[in-house]
Amino acid sequence: xxxxxxxxxxxxxxxxxxxxxxxxxxxxxxxxxxxxxxxxxxxxxxxxxxxxxxxxxxxxxxxxxxxxxxxxxxxxxxxxxxxxxxxxxxxxxxxxxxxxxxxxxxxxxxxxxxxxxxxxxxxxxxxxxxxxxxxxxxxxxxxxxxxxxxxxxxxxxxxxxxxxxxxxxxxxxxxxxxxxxxxxxxxxxxxxxxxxxxxxxxxxxxxxxxxxxxxxxxxxxxxxxxxxxxxxxxxxxxxxxxxxxxxxxxxxxxxxxxxxxxxxxxxxxxxxxxxxxxxxxxxxxxxxxxxxxxxxxxxxxxxxxxxxxxxxxxxxxxxxxxxxxxxxxxxxxxxxxxxxxxx
Length: 343
Known about the structure:
Blueprint: H1 15-22, H2 26-33, H3 41-53, H4 60-67, E1 72-78, H5 90-105, E2 109-115, H6 123-128, E3 135-139, H7 145-152, E4 158-161, E5 171-175, H8 177-190, E6 195-199, H9 205-221, E7 226-230, H10 236-249, E8 256-259, H11 262-274, E9 284-289, E10 302-305, H12 308-323, E11 331-333, E12 336-338
Parallel strand pairs: 1-2, 1-3, 3-4, 4-5, 5-11, 6-7, 6-8, 8-9, 9-10
Antiparallel strand pairs: 10-12
Domain HTH lacI-type: 13-67
Keywords: DNA-binding, Transcription, Transcription regulation
Organism: Novosphingobium aerophilum
């Protein structure tokens, strides 16, 4: 025997219908749904309950038109000096995942893009002037420091992962790369290494500072340690062959390698293994980033830790403050040496 089901509440189409049902004005409904304290709590809760019961959801597009906000943040990876680098790079993916979680938790959607400045010198101007975004997060400065500075002078909701220079305009969140490079070299020198190769393309500002920090440590040590730079690229198509060529060109007396990223360090570890070179017995190896996979290599990778998760949260917090009209200073995080098995 079939039982009669209670009819479902009629679905409401707009705020006017909900206002009529609740016996209040449309303005009161709008404020209650936005959880504004101008409407007393009892009325707010009653209107919100009616909205849920009748399946009413405010038109987000109309709301965004009223507030002048889109609810979307652009996450952009500028590839000025590493044009063949992929978004699938493990560092990008780690930081991007953290940024996405932080933005979604705050009610924002994100629009991801990879910018190739060589194809469009005004790439950042077009992004910030598109009208589609409430703000922009840049993952890295590449070789675009002056371009970013120019845009930041007029566009405030812009936060960048990267390196801070004294007196700069744009807001940066990032690790002190100079200090990180110094830590890596100090560790290798303390192990007795005196001929160190640096693998990394110094056209990127962060990478340049890592090499500068390493060279400062070598000079400060008074040991006569020499650090040779090799412009190793991060693009997947070039990195393996580049590292092989770098290993061939290295001085035979080289006893350590400081890689500008964990990705370069792991590829180097593979190349050393294929050549029968044991790490760390024949060659000490230090990376930079402390990505999760560095504990899975054989041997486990000694590296410089940067707080990617904390940095992502700081980037989003700074951006939302800037969207609200506040100013925010740069956030410079302190690196930390993580000693494992490779050095």
